[in-house]
Design goal:
Elements (H helix, E strand, L loop, with lengths): L1 E5 L6 H10 L3 E6 L5 H6 L3 E4 L7 H4 L4 E4 L9 H21 L4 E5 L15 H15 L4 E7 L1 E3 L6 E5 L10 E3 H12 L7 E7 L2 E2 H6 L2
Parallel strand pairs: 1-2, 1-4, 2-3, 4-5, 5-6, 6-10, 7-9
Antiparallel strand pairs: 8-10, 8-11
Helix pairs in contact: 1-6, 4-5
The structure holds NADP nicotinamide-adenine-dinucleotide phosphate (NAP).
């Protein structure tokens, strides 16, 4: 299946590309800086130019599915967060709808339900992600919203805790970006995750068994 990866050059995105190739998919890495093309090809993907702040019809193209792993990052101000994490995500969702993309997997975040209860500096980010997630839920695509805890660069160990109930995971757990990438790719082949929103952190259950419980 041809999969558009948005945020492909990011720390999670770079894990996604070889995983998609190993799973037999064609990964199309959307990059806004074409100097990154060589890296994307080395990771097993095709590269396509695209920027969430600009029209996306060309980048979305004829793919069958889209994984959103982009974000404005913690160093940008609130305006850029709204532009990328909300308006950019909605632009992508609406372009995917127009282009008849069937499957959309969103990398979101835990605690988006209650932005006001998050740390002051994260509230605008959590609210932007929550609004984009809500727009995705209204789409007719087969969507999945994956909400990890704090992202680390630790090695994957494929042992997780997941919850599809609001506030089902207590506290603020973490999870490696590599394991998040494995979850996002696994969701592509799992009908039980369609139309679901779930939280995920490090835990004690093997990855596939944890996803069976969604
Ligand atoms: N950090 C956490 O603890 C945490 C927790 C839960 C969820 N999350 C979510 O997980 C996402 C991925 O995290 P990460 O650490 O892997 O991200 P990252 O390394 O910061 O990568 C973000 C990617 O988004 C791309 N991007 C930014 N603006 C864009 C635009 N206008 N158009 C197209 N692409 C754009 C960046 O492109 P360039 O390479 O060109 O800069 C980069 O490749 C975050 O954005 C966040 O929403 C994070």
């Amino acid at each position: 299946m041809n999969i558009l990866v948005v945020g492909a050059n990011g720390r999670t995105g770079r894990h996604l590309l070889p995983l998609l190739k190993a799973a037999g998919h064609t990964a199309r890495a959307m990059i806004r800086n074409y100097d990154q093309r060589g890296d994307m090809v080395a990771l097993g993907a095709e590269a396509v130019a695209g920027d969430l702040e600009k029209p996306l019809g060309y980048a979305v193209g004829d793919n069958r599915a889209c994984i959103f792993a982009a974000g404005s990052g913690s160093k940008t101000g609130p305006e850029k967060t709204i532009d990328v994490d909300f308006h950019g995500a909605v632009r992508l969702i609406e372009t995917c709808e127009r282009k008849k993309i069937r499957r959309f997997i969103m990398l979101s975040s835990m605690n988006t339900d209650e932005p006001e209860s998050g740390p002051e500096k994260l509230r605008h980010y959590l609210a932007a992600k929550a609004a984009a997630d809500e727009r995705l839920r209204q789409s007719l695509m087969d969507w999945t919203i994956v909400r990890p805890g704090y992202l680390s660069d630790e090695a994957s160990h494929e042992m997780l805790e997941v919850s599809a109930s609001l506030g089902g995971l207590e506290g603020a757990g973490s999870i490696s970006r590599e394991d998040v990438a494995k979850v996002l790719v696994a969701c592509l082949g799992r009908d039980n995750t369609v139309g679901k929103t779930f939280d995920v952190v490090d835990g004690k259950t093997p990855l596939e068994e944890a996803l069976d419980s969604i």
